[in-house]
Specification:
two-stranded antiparallel ribbon; disordered N terminus; globular; 5 helices; alpha+beta; single chain; 162 residues
């Protein structure tokens, strides 16, 4: 059993994401009979926002030599996260090293205790940083699963080709 102090899931539910600990601040403005509502996500503890986390992830992957990094905007496509990042390492050892460094940076710089899957085999490592999900693959495994094709829309694919 996890110590409640060390447990990243404060409510004790296994698999609860950082999204469950966030509060949404709504600001509304009524103009000409229409209601315009903007949602601003604010972390309950005043920590780093989604854009900052995404920037940290992309910078870390670039600095550690990840190959073919693709960012996919999940806003409006899924409630599980706002962004997905897919990248490759050159070998199992490289995938493990990139994943470990990213996990360490998320904890040190953003205070995020990311959940991970697949670190032992290092063929496909999933890092759940709350609103940013990271998939790190060996090139052969990435070619086999082609996970980006599931989530990319036509405009995403065209922007990637440009």
């Amino acid at each position: 059993m996890l110590d409640p102090v060390d447990n990243p899931c404060r409510d004790g539910a296994i698999g609860a994401s950082a999204r469950a600990r966030r509060r949404i601040v709504l600001t509304g403005q009524i103009a000409a009979g229409a209601t315009s509502v903007q949602a601003h996500a604010a972390d309950a503890e005043g920590q780093t926002g989604t854009g900052d986390i995404l920037s940290l992830v992309l910078h870390s992957l670039d600095a550690d030599g990840a190959v073919d990094v693709v960012e996919i905007d999940l806003a409006g496509k899924s409630d599980m996260a706002d962004h997905m990042v897919v990248a490759s390492g050159r070998s199992s050892r490289h995938v493990t090293a990139v994943a470990e460094k990213l996990i360490d940076k998320l904890k040190a710089e953003a205070g995020i205790r990311a959940k991970t899957e697949g670190r032992d085999s290092a063929d496909w490592v999933l890092i759940d940083a709350g609103d940013v999900i990271v998939h790190l693959f060996r090139p052969e495994v990435r070619d086999y699963y082609q996970i980006e094709k599931m989530w990319m829309t036509a405009p995403d694919a065209l922007a990637r080709q440009a």
